[in-house]
From TrEMBL:
Keywords: Cell membrane, Membrane, Signal, Transport
Domain of life, per lineage: Bacteria
Signal peptide extent: 1-25
GO process annotations (BP): choline transport; glycine betaine transport
The organism of origin for this protein: Salibacterium qingdaonense
Identification of the protein by name: Glycine betaine/proline transport system substrate-binding protein
GO terms for cellular component: ATP-binding cassette (ABC) transporter complex
């Protein structure tokens, strides 16, 4: 249903980087790195002093071991910009550098160091399969440089509920977890997304039934969903496509730039999307079009970014690191 001019919109090379902007400031609990809450904080007396001394020594060793370098991704990514801000804001990162190369290079370095249980500090975001493949944790971000937790929402065009009540209901009900998404993405490293989506639906039909039960079947009614070309959104859209197809819908998935997702749904050129990251990443696009779209709420909660390290590293916070001398 996209007009031809929409189909001709080129996807810029920076789209995958923009996705990482999506991860700008998300945490499962709303505060980066709360998973590693710094056990022992608040202890007093001799025990506290010993802990602090051990932590300082460990922190210095971490900095030296990683050559005071954060292993990052592409230079234009949002998380790269946030990490540059973190280096400026945190005294503990004074003199540190960010190695901005590529996501593939970061993952390769992570894999090598992880297999040897060597220290590494990376720019992390999820949903991403690395959190399913490796035991990682976010470092606490007391200054909230990476922002608050985000959620991925579903939006629909005005009038969809009246035109296609069944599809609207399925989109409104669709919800899965961070664990669902990341395990899916890990499987998709070995198979194409469509194959993994079918396997996921086959293995989780009970959950799919919660989305489609009571929805009247149709005979080939066409519906088009816009999505960003990021793997996490390709995954969710592929799953929703199969759920809609179980009720007879003919589904088209169209990957476009994030700004186009909102514009297309607002203009009625697309029927909906499960791709918007809110409130920060796509907040400006949402504000521009919110009067002309229907917000169906979150389909995934706990999307986040920040500095991440393997869990075998004895460090909990960005402030535990020590500046380069």
């Amino acid at each position: 249903m996209f007009k031809k001019n929409w189909k001709k919109i080129a996807l810029s090379a920076g789209l995958s980087l923009t996705m990482l902007t999506a991860a700008c400031g998300q945490d499962e609990s709303g505060e980066n790195g709360s998973e590693g809450s710094g056990e022992g904080n608040g202890s007093s007396g001799e025990e506290s002093g010993e802990s602090s001394g051990d932590q300082t020594e460990s922190s210095v060793n971490v900095g030296e071991a990683v050559d005071y370098t954060i292993t990052g991704i592409e230079p234009g990514a949002g998380i790269t910009e946030s990490t540059s801000n973190a280096i400026s804001e945190y005294d503990s990162l004074s003199g540190w550098e960010q190695n901005s190369s590529s996501t593939a290079a970061m993952l390769s370095e992570l894999r090598t160091r992880y297999e040897n249980e060597e220290p590494i500090v990376i720019t992390g975001w999820n949903p991403h399969y690395k959190f399913a493949q490796f035991d990682l944790k976010y470092l606490e971000d007391p200054q909230n440089v990476y922002g608050e937790a985000e959620e991925i929402r579903t939006i629909a065009r005005m009038g969809l509920e009246e035109d296609m009540p069944g599809a609207y209901k399925i989109l409104d009900r669709f919800q899965w977890t961070l664990e669902d998404s990341e395990s899916f993405l890990l499987e998709a490293q070995e198979k194409d997304i469509e194959t993994v989506a079918q396997e996921w639906v086959d293995n989780n039909q009970g959950k799919v039934d919660e989305w489609i039960n009571g929805v009247e079947s149709v005979d080939g009614k066409e519906i088009e969903l816009a999505l960003t070309p990021w793997d996490s959104e390709r995954a969710s859209s592929a799953v929703v496509k199969l759920a809609l197809e179980q009720k007879g819908y003919d589904v088209t998935l169209t990957p476009v730039d994030p700004s186009v997702v909102f514009e297309a749904v607002a203009n009625g050129d697309a029927d909906g999307s499960t791709a918007p990251w809110m409130p920060k990443t796509h907040g400006s696009f949402y504000e521009e079009h919110e009067d002309n779209i229907v917000d169906l709420g979150p389909n995934l909660e706990g999307a986040l970014t920040g500095l991440a390290v393997p869990t075998y590293m004895d460090i909990e916070s960005i402030e535990d690191l020590q500046p380069a001398e």
